[in-house]
Design goal:
Blueprint lengths: L1 H8 L3 H11 L7 H11 L2 H11 L4 H4 L5 H29 L1
Length: 97
């Protein structure tokens, strides 16, 4: 993560590109750290990759990480995710009756 931060700070674009693809490998194991980096440096694609992983996290955990332009899409994704879970639970209850 330190190398990626340095590449962004000093605008070493070749290193930034390599780090971006390396960070994708850590989306599942360190999603919040990658989310913080992606939000800070405007990597919307990484944020989108992380959405399904952290969709069950309380908004209070991501609201201070994401800038407003990313928070809207995150909120809409999360709402749809939760609606799908609710519908799935309802379907399970109906089947059990």
């Amino acid at each position: 993560m330190s190398l990626a931060e340095a590449a962004e700070k000093y605008e070493v674009f070749a290193a930034s590109a390599v780090c971006f693809y390396q960070l994708k490998d850590f989306v599942r194991t360190q999603p919040k750290r990658v989310l913080e980096f992606a939000a800070k440096h405007g990597y919307h694609e990484l944020v989108v990759d992380i959405q399904p992983i952290l969709a069950d996290s309380p908004m209070s955990e991501v609201v201070d990480i994401l800038p407003l332009q990313m928070l809207k899409s995150w909120s809409l994704f999360r709402e749809q995710h939760l609606q799908n879970k609710i519908q799935s639970l309802k379907n399970d209850l109906v089947r059990r009756r």
